[in-house]
Amino acid sequence: MFNxxxxxxxxxxxxxxxxxxxxxxxxxxKTLLITMNLQNIAQMSCNPAMGGIAKGQIVRExxxxxxYSGIVxxxxxxxxxxxxxxxxxxxxxPRVQSDRMRFAEDWRMLLEKTDNLDFYQEMVxxxxxxxxxxxGVKTSLGVEVRAKSVVLTNGTFLNGLIHIGDxxxxxxxxxxxxxxxxxxQLVNLGFESGxxxxxxxPRVDGRSLDFSKMIEQPGDVNPEKFSYLDTTKPLTEQRxxxxxxxxxxxxxxxxxxxxxSPMFNGRIKSVGPRYCPSIEDKINxxxxxxxxxxxxxxxxxxxxxxxxxxxxxxxxxxxxxxALRSVVGFENVKFFRPxxxxxxDYFPPTQLKHTLETKLVEGLYFAGxxxxxxxxxxAASQGLMAGINASLKVQEKEAFTxxxxxxxxxxxxxxxxxxxxxxxxxMFTSRAEYRTLLRQDNADFRLTPKGYKLGLASEQRLxxxxxKQAKSEAFVQFFRDTxxxxxEANPVLESKNSALVKQQDKMFKLYARPNITIxxxxxFEAVENYIQANDLDREVIEQTEIQVKYAGYIEKEKNNxxxxxxxxxxxxxxxxxxxKLKSMSIEARQKLNKIQPxxxxxxxxxxxxxxxxxxxxxxYLGR
Length: 623
Ligand SMILES: Cc1cc2nc3c(=O)[nH]c(=O)nc-3n(C[C@H](O)[C@H](O)[C@H](O)COP(=O)(O)OP(=O)(O)OC[C@H]3O[C@@H](n4cnc5c(N)ncnc54)[C@H](O)[C@@H]3O)c2cc1C
Hints:
NAD-binding protein involved in the addition of a carboxymethylaminomethyl (cmnm) group at the wobble position (U34) of certain tRNAs, forming tRNA-cmnm(5)s(2)U34. Belongs to the MnmG family. Residues 548-619 form the tRNA uridine 5-carboxymethylaminomethyl modification enzyme C-terminal subdomain domain. By secondary structure, this protein is an alpha+beta fold. Helix content is 36%, strand content 18%. Among the domains are: 459-566, Arc Repressor Mutant, subunit A (Orthogonal Bundle), CATH 1.10.10.1800; 570-621, GidA associated domain, C-terminal subdomain (DNA polymerase, domain 1), CATH 1.10.150. It has 20 helices and 22 strands. The strands form 5 sheets. Strands 1, 2, 6, 7, 8, 9 and 20 form a 7-stranded mixed sheet that branches. The chain has a 6-stranded antiparallel sheet with strand order 14-15-16-17-13-18, with no helix packed on it. A 4-stranded antiparallel sheet has the order 11-10-19-12, with no helix packed on it. It is globular and about 80 Å long. Flavin-adenine dinucleotide is lined by residues 11-17, 34-37, 40, 45-46, 123-124, 153-157, 172-173, 179, 182, 198-200, 276, 342, 368-369, 374-376, 379, 426.
């Protein structure tokens, strides 16, 4: 392999790297995945869980395009929950608790079964760049591998520095060494880099916990799953999580270590994820709160290791231990691993194009935490897009990007490259202006045809999606066409305190009422007969319900998106020099020159660029 030239070399086999390698190889590119430790492929560095609010939608999107994260999330799940089920379907977010070891193993097995993919365990210490074009990588042992494109997915490893209390040491993750060389070389090549930080809670021995004192958190009664393929199945058995609380006493014990906290004594200077604060940060910032929730999450089917969600900390280990022993149910707790914080290098993502290719070095792509994001799902989706585009570039095909109204992945990448990020970026539903369109139930409709066209999504995947679409459309039409008599409708309506009908009416109208559910309309003989005769499954029924109840909202959002897309089609010439637009604000000129937006719409999303600046640009471009 040392003498071979690869189409795509992926550096790092975390969530981003694994998806990137799978995508490139599945699209027919000769791919090499180089990572520091082949035992830790797709290792979950922090909590053993996939999905959650907005992140669950991303996993569904990855799956719909033909990535592996959804499949592995299903095969390694120990508990499933559909979050936000009491809200509208745009907010429904699937989440699984995962078997950490199985997750990594299943990923590795899937990758090993992937054609065109080679593996190599070593640290990449530099890139080979000729005339602003990447042509390969160098490893710390001095091995040189030639490549037509390179995807960097180094996660938290670049000059990683781990902190526990007043101790710190180099590392990319506890027990794994940091990666050196790459940042320094990229900075010499003209890249801007920064530092971010994140943290993780202690892991404990479940045999030392008293679960009878905690509140049980079981999974859903009717669990669903991530993958649209029928090769994975919903769970038939699940493991529960538990909940406990910190207390004033726990907070006082934690405060005893504040003078040795790297967060408070100036040792950690970089910014951490705002929405995943450490326990010391929560006590400090929300001093009026006398308790904080802790979720006690099993790390797998068979292990007794537990993850203490909500207790992320870099306080000294003795302080962590003493405080945790004062939590109800934790009186005899034994530690597996203490919590810690880590600082690492990242590269502000405004240095990237929509394809995740760097603007400075041709053929070089960045994906995952290296771009300033946080989270497995955010990383995996970027990896998928970088792998796809690296492959397309080598094959001299048109680039593949997703727009903001097409996918959360489109929102994520557009936000990163247009606005940049000063703190670890995580996805939220509120970041998507078209979230009614970007639901977890329809990611296959939105993306599987695109994935199929790319050669990533299989024929089987496409057929399943087409069948679901045809069946749900026909069922919606059935409700539009079929009437129900007052005799049949009124007992059902009365039971739901819904206004009665005086004459025959279309079922669609009744079903569209907010408090009338599928269980209610199934009481009409014609509906139940239709379901049985057409063998409709849960997915088709759910899809139909959404189409009936939310048709108006969906239509409105589609119209808004269409309006935006008109602006999206107004292209700006490449390397446009904004300094000549003197009537534009200086800030806008500087930012536009730096980011080089591709369309007027993208330009309008850059912070510091006002509607007035956009008008100046439109006039100049003769619009
Ligand atoms: C302590 C800690 C706490 C975290 N807390 C949270 C949290 O609370 N919430 C959250 O959403 N996310 C959290 N994360 C982040 C989450 O783990 C990442 O977002 C996600 O794993 C990023 O995926 P990635 O693929 O970009 O990188 P990683 O998963 O970090 O994978 C990087 C891979 O690249 C390899 N690698 C790196 N450099 C080289 C090199 N030079 N040569 C060869 N291989 C290399 C590594 O061995 C590793 O396999 C935390 C991470 C850590 C370490």
